Amino acid sequence: MKDKLIWLNKHFRREWQIYVMLLPVIIWFIVFLYKPMYGLQIAFKDYSIFRGIAGSPWAGFEHFYTLLDSDQFLRAVKNTFVISGLSLIFGFPVPIILALMFNEILHQGFKKTAQTIVYLPHFISTVIIAGIVITAFSPSSGVVNLLLSKLGIEPIYFLTKPEWFRPIFIGSGIWQEAGFSSIVFLAAIAGVSPTLYESAVVDGASRWQMIWKITLPAIMPTIIIMLIIRIGNLLEVGFELVILLYQPATYETSDIINTFIYRQGLQGGQYDLAAAAGLFNAVVAFVLVITANMIAKRYSKTSLW
Amino acid sequence: MANMNLYSRGDRLFVVANMVLVGLFTLSTLYPFIYIVSVSFSSGFAASAGQVVLTPIELTLAAYERVLSDARFWISYKNTFIFTIGGTLTSLLIIIPGAYALSRPQLIGRRFWNFFIAFTMWFNAGMIPFFLNMRDLGLLDSYFGIIIGFAVNAFNIILLRNFFESIPRSFEEAARMDGANEFQVLWKVYIPLSKPAIATITLFCIVSRWNGFFWAMVLLRDENKVPLQVYLRQIIVELTDDEEFVSATLSAVFSYETVSAAIIVCSIIPVLILYPFVQKYFNKGILLGGVKE
Question: What CATH class is the domain A62-302?
Answer without folding.
Answer: mainly alpha
